[in-house]
Design a protein that fits this description.
Helices cover about 40% and strands about 20% of the residues. It has about 675 residues and is an alpha+beta fold. Among the domains are: about 10-115, Tetratricopeptide repeat domain (Serine Threonine Protein Phosphatase 5, Tetratricopeptide repeat, Alpha Horseshoe); about 280-480, no CATH class; about 485-640, no CATH class. The longest helix has about 45 residues, at about 5-50. The radius of gyration is 30 Å and the shape is globular.
């Protein structure tokens, strides 16, 4: 049968119509996909810009428009967990599990139900092997339910797959509940070996020593906690009660100090050619009321102008006291007054190998490593009567200073090119920051606020060799010393200085670790969270605990720290407001029952419990009162992350990179310059 012309024409029209409709559908679908993708990117951009609520609401809209898009929904879940909207997060996770029982979603449900204080657990499928994370969160749920035997079994199995500080910490708590104090001590010690700033573990370990009646160790640890957390009145009260019940602790401590002063021999330093080397003044201590020192050679005690006031032989013990009148009083070993001065005093020697031993010098105030110890120093020692007490200053040449700074900042066992890079960076930092604390009587602090400087004890032959090999070398840009910042571990990405530092230079930029690729796009909230749990291969990944870490910080700990500056009541949440492209948090909004408080920049670390870095995600664990019981921080890196990554430098050195190549990677565009 033949078709007439009219029929053929109608078929052609029909085909064209169908083609047009299909094309329109495809184009519409493609446009919708593009629009959805753009909206997704916009939600991520808002998250990084600091518009958290807008980002959260946009993810909600994306899920409403396209309910089957799992990526949108799991990112929404991630933001809801941070916001403490845990019931809503669980609803979305139930939806995901109904449509796709993926182990990833099961793990997310486990963690979220724990954070929400709910007991529901999804058992693994026959095909699914439980991960360390699964076992951890199940164990924590059982702990909440006081099912300690089951929790213990789950957490022990988790540790067999992956060592985590949280599993060790909660196993310690379980054994405390069971009155197994020796086992509790073992697990809590392991937790702190992994994460020294796991604050609750420090408190509970002290409690364990008290239960074991090891009062000496309990006293030592309480003193350390008191130094690192001066705002904690409970610790101070516990310490006072302990010494009142056991006065022998104070007596033994004083006897030990007296014995140490008597038997200590002040060592001599390695000879050093000081010709043509500039000097620097380092602040060792401030507001000191009293300190004992011991001389390493025949000494001279004089005024700033050089007027001799007292002299004596090597190994002489002297006591410097800040009097009620604001004078410096100097006593001998027999506690006889030698002199009193309203002006600064200078302790010096003729031999440049002589050192001075300062007893019980406090360090690390406010940090978990806070304490006191005896330290020896090269050069001159200044005693300045200032408001509130004595300021103690060490004056020495820059190169002698570096002999101590380099091993105080970096293990002396690391490769030579890494030590050399550290020497150049530290020398550059010193010259670019000379006079920073001039109004306080010195150039730089001896703490990590400037550069760690622990005196003679850290000096080694390998370090002196590295410093000597780079003698007089600094990094310059446009003829000036650069701001050669550095930190322990970048977590994979070095970053630019925070805006409040006032430093915006091309040699300080976001830098991926040599083994990582610089990101072309911002990571989504869920991708960032996963990246901080994983351990991607990098030169800086050789840091066991600094590269990736996880800690819990009690709500009360943060409240105590913040209430020193503001009254916000009880904390209801921590919201990140802005991230750098590498993921570091710019600002944190602390939401409280009496008001909110904004924390900016590098102070975030100290105010939120002494965190290792600003590269983290945070989630609340709700208590029975629906307020956060504590916050879980999952992060990467150690320090501010600006400039040279010290662990990265070591990794590059082990791979054969030279000092100049390491410095060129971390400070691009800078030049090595000899200044003497």
């Amino acid at each position: 049968m033949k078709l007439n012309c009219s029929s053929k024409f109608h078929h052609i029209l029909l085909y064209l119509l169908l083609f047009s409709v299909l094309t329109w559908v495809l184009i519409a679908g493609e446009n919708k996909a593009i629009a959805t993708k753009n909206r997704f990117r916009e939600a991520i951009s808002l998250y990084y810009r600091g518009d958290f609520d807008q980002s959260l609401n946009l993810f909600r809209e994306l899920v409403k428009v396209d309910p089957h898009n799992e990526n949108n929904r799991i990112n929404l879940v991630r933001l809801l967990r941070e916001a403490g909207e845990l019931e809503e997060a669980l609803e979305h996770l139930r939806y995901l599990l109904e449509h796709n029982p993926d182990p990833i979603y099961q793990s997310a449900y486990l963690k979220t139900s724990y954070l929400a204080g709910q007991s529901s657990i999804i058992p693994p499928t026959e095909q699914q092997k439980e991960t360390a994370e699964d076992l951890l969160w199940k164990g924590l749920v059982c702990y909440d339910l006081k099912e300690y035997d089951q929790a213990q079994n789950l957490l022990e199995n988790s540790l067999q797959l992956k060592r985590t500080s949280l599993a060790n910490y909660f196993l310690g708590l379980i054994h405390l509940e069971k009155y197994n104090f020796e086992q509790a001590k073992t697990y809590l010690t392991r937790a702190l070996n992994q994460e020294p700033n796991l604050i609750p573990a420090r408190y509970e370990l002290t409690r364990t020593f008290l239960e074991l009646k090891d009062y000496k160790e309990a006293y030592r640890r309480l003193k350390q906690i008191a130094a690192s957390a001066p705002w904690n009145t409970n610790i101070r009260l516990t310490l006072e009660n302990l010494t009142a019940e056991h006065p022998f602790l104070l007596e033994e401590e004083e006897t030990k100090k007296e014995t140490s002063r008597t038997i200590s021999i002040v060592p001599s330093a390695e000879p050093f050619d000081q010709t043509g080397i500039p000097e620097i003044k380092i602040g060792l201590a401030e507001k000191t009321r009293m300190i004992y020192i011991k001389t390493g050679a025949k000494y001279l005690l004089s005024t700033n102008s050089g007027k001799e006031l007292n002299s004596g032989p090597a190994q002489t013990i002297l006591k410097f006291v800040f009097s009620s009148r604001g004078n410096i009083e100097v006593y001998n070993e027999q506690d006889s007054l030698l002199l009193s001065s309203a002006n600064p005093l200078v302790l010096s020697y003729q031999e440049n190998t002589a050192t001075t031993l300062l007893f019980n010098l406090e360090f690390g105030h406010g940090y978990y490593w806070a304490g006191s110890e005896d330290r020896c120093y090269r050069g001159k020692i200044y005693f300045l009567p200032m408001s509130g007490g004595l300021t103690i200053v060490n004056q020495l040449t820059v190169e002698e200073y570096l002999y101590s700074v380099v091993p105080s900042e970096m293990p002396s066992s690391w490769p030579a090119s890494a030590l050399q890079a550290q020497a150049v960076a530290a020398r550059t930092y010193a010259f670019s920051h000379l006079g920073t604390y001039q109004n306080r009587g010195f150039d730089l602090l001896s703490s990590v606020s400037s550069q760690a400087y622990n005196g003679l004890k850290n000096e080694t032959a390998s370090v002196r060799k590295a410093v000597d090999a780079t003698r007089g070398q600094i990094l310059t840009f446009e003829g000036k010393p650069i701001a050669a910042f550095y930190s322990s571990n970048s977590g994979g990405y070095s970053t630019v200085p925070p805006s409040n530092w006032g430093v915006n230079q091309p040699y300080l930029q976001t830098k991926a670790d040599k083994l990582l690729t610089l990101r072309s796009d911002l990571l989504s909230p869920e991708e960032l969270s996963k990246w901080l749990i994983e351990r991607p291969t990098a030169y800086c990944a050789n840091a066991t605990n600094a590269y990736r870490w996880q800690v819990i910080v009690p709500r009360e700990e943060i409240e105590n720290r913040l209430n020193m500056a503001t009254q916000i009541g009880q904390i209801t949440g921590l919201i990140t407001l802005g991230r750098e492209e590498c993921g570091r948090v710019k600002q944190i909004l602390v939401k409280g029952t009496k008001g909110d408080y904004l924390i900016k920049g590098d102070t975030i670390r100290s105010k939120l419990g002494g965190l290792r870095s600003n590269l983290f995600v945070v989630e609340p664990k709700l208590g029975k009162d629906r307020l956060p019981e504590f916050f879980i921080f999952t992060g990467g890196g150690f320090g501010h992350g600006v400039g040279m990554d010290q662990y990265g430098a070591a990794g590059m050195a082990r791979d054969g990179f030279s000092c100049s190549q390491i410095l060129g990677h971390y400070y691009p565009g800078s030049e090595l310059t000899n200044i003497y």
